[in-house]
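Margin note: ligand = zinc ion.
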Amino acid sequence: MNKRRSKETNGIVIPQWRRIRDYFRSLFPSREKTLVILYTTDVHGFIYPYDYILGRDTQWGLARVATLIEAYRKRYPDVLLLDNGDFLQGSPLTYYYNFLRKRGSHPVARVMNALKYDAASVGNHDIEQGPRVYNRVRRQFRFPWLSANAKVGRKRSYFQPYTIREFGDIRIAILGLTTPAIPLWLNPDLYPGIHWQDMVSAARGWLPYLKESQRANVVIGLFHAGIHPNANRPDWPEDIPEENPCLQIAEEMPGYDVILAAHEHRLYNSHPLEGEPDNPRRPLVMMAGSHGRHLGVIFLRLKKEKTGWKVVDKWGKIENARRESPHPAIVDIMRPYHQRIMRYINSRIGYARDTISSRYSRLKDGGFVDLIHQTQFRFSQADVSLAASFTTTYVLKKGPIRIRDVYGLYKYENYLYVVILTGQQLIDHLEWTAQYFNTVDPEDPLARPLINADFMGFNYDMAEGITYEIDITRPVGERIQNVRLTATGEPLDRQQSFRVAVNSYRAQQLRKRFRCPIVWKSNKEIRDLIVEYIKEKREIRDKTTHNWKLVPEWIVEKYIRERLERDLSAIRDE
Ligand SMILES: [Zn+2]
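Resulting structure:
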């Protein structure tokens, strides 16, 4: 094992046996070959190593990963570079060049072209930017952008489904797929005419075609989806296919040599060791994090046999880019874009009279989420407003408010919608979203985390327009108590209909669950509406309304004092 691995360490010590072996190999060229696949995923606009929202340098970003990429290209002759989607959304940079400056070259396309990607897949957040954005960027790409299950009609795919790359006479097929749970989150306006086919059947359908008709020696699944299945959850809508089927595909279809996963922003590597006897038989599955923090590296060893090239070993590792310096060529490309974003992000829009922190925004009512509610009421004429806190780290400091504070407060590109819900549906939804908390035993309240790490924090809604309590000692489904209308103090009528202001993401979920009508849509994003609201008000104060609370309160206080900080570090929704 060690002898074999020394080849990948640094290549300084070359043992005698290897020199002899290499000499004999040189007499029979290209009977054996090592291919290196490099891959990035979920970069979310993090290219220049700078956090525009916090206003400081970062240890990550694609510019740092680029240095690693170059090092691998220098060391190995046969390198493939892939990206697994979600690069068009997630930072002020992408927002600005998607929506505020729509002409000219897009920085993401420029950088990805400069890095000479061989292919990329389409991610759900790329689709979220709408056809005007993804079609513009697609025209600028000098590499194929793949998604085989974005179907138009029965046969055609909206994006190119696969691509073939050749290294000598080795043919590598790369099949792109996108998580088909998109209709759960995104309004159909964002993907007109596209139907998201189930990934498992798409992966199964394409495999024999790529192997036989396309004579691929290696098949790589470039799948923008995760590895933790969701469709078995009781609240998963019947008509939405599995969101994260990568491991299922690996298990059912050993014909895939490599399956690159994405979407969950985690690290996973099924084949960490070279030379394990089982390696060639199972698909190598990898997930290489997010935000330009890591580079996935996969080695494929192929041997030429009578029937053609065959993978005889495969293994991989995930490299952290933290210690790399940003690649000078990428920094040069990015400099003018970076300077423009700095001017934009630092422009002043109002003044904060109080410091408003998001730290406990999901545990207690506070000014942070109430600012979102105020904005939603100001622009929507709703009876009730629902909003989640997308962060537990951002602090709006007393003093001038800048554009970047609004990104810190509200990090997603959502529109404001009004849906009609009955009182009963509203309570059912609050019960669903209260799954964010584990049930607490009052005899031993700190025994386990109060926060349920399996339920994403961005799904935990807080309401305004009603008053209520969440009893965390009771099981899921029986926690929401004492619900009253704020205006009258009357108990909530479960039969009555209410106009409920929500973000577009939540409207999509509620529509799937309750088939509730959407009666109004804003033509601006909530983040822009918050900017407008702050400009209108000029000054913002912490206006906590105290309309909801977790009970018993003593447990919450004790938890915040004694356990919360430890638990927050284990939570993965940021
Ligand atoms: Zn992502």
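Residues 1-11 have pLDDT under 50 and may be disordered.
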